[in-house]
Write a structure and sequence with these properties.
Elements lengths: L2 H16 L31 E5 L9 E5 L7 E8 L13 E6 L4 E4 L1 E2 L13 E7 L7 E6 L11 E8 L2 E7 L5 E8 L5 E9 L4 E3 L2 E4 L4 E5 L10 E8 L6 E9 L4 E6 L1 E2 L3
Antiparallel strand pairs: 1-9, 2-8, 3-7, 3-9, 4-5, 4-8, 6-7, 10-16, 10-19, 11-15, 11-17, 12-13, 12-14, 12-16, 17-18
Length: about 270
Amino acid sequence: MTKQALVAFSLIGGLLLATPALAVDPWETAGVFGTDDTNASRNTLGHGAIQQHDIDQAGGGPDQDWIIVPTIARHSYEARLHTMIRFDWGGCAVCSQFERVDAAGAILTEDAGVVNDGTGLSEESYDRTIRWIASASTTDEFVRITGDTDFANGPNAVYTIRFWDSTYSIPRWNNSSGQVTVFVINSLVQAPVQVRVDFYNAAGTLLASPTSTLNANSLLVINTSTIAALANQSGHAYVAHTAGYGGLAGKAVALEPATGFSFDTIMTPIPH
């Protein structure tokens, strides 16, 4: 390597070292549809999507990122945020905020720590989640990320957000022709979660929707023969919940007392 080439290489290396490795938030650049700073945002998260953003104030007030989360009625969802930014763990009003909101900015669901063994003051508070069951099909709901209000976030205030439809499917249950089906579901998360099982017949008619609270390390057993609307019926089921993507495990067991046979149908998440 010549002396001139060595000098040029050193200068380039120095510039690279002097420039922080920062992510660029493409949704902050005004285009035809504007930025993601308000409810006019057209940035959308779909199932399995991963995006990287920042809450750099860039000389202004606290940055806000509004991201549309389209939902289907009776499905469940999770938005999860990974970062080293200080987020509100439930007792820090001036910390950065992660919330599910409507178009007017009203809070629909607060976030929680993915790991919730401690007080939220430790490193666990940097991994946040919002989990909910959709009551309607809509494209007018958002997850909103807001920067700290007690100090200015810089361009290194970067986070990664993921989004899933966390609904499970059970393609077969049967309470006809001498069979009875029992659902067995357990939770893999640390906090109590809500679970709803929607039973449909083969034509897609909703027959019943029992709900339960499933505590940590507990087991939910649903004997479908005790649900009057399911007598002499068969079909498929969806399991909506607040355990997050992959947060439950389970199956439906169709029992045939006359022969002693049993038929297992595994509860499966939507692939991503």
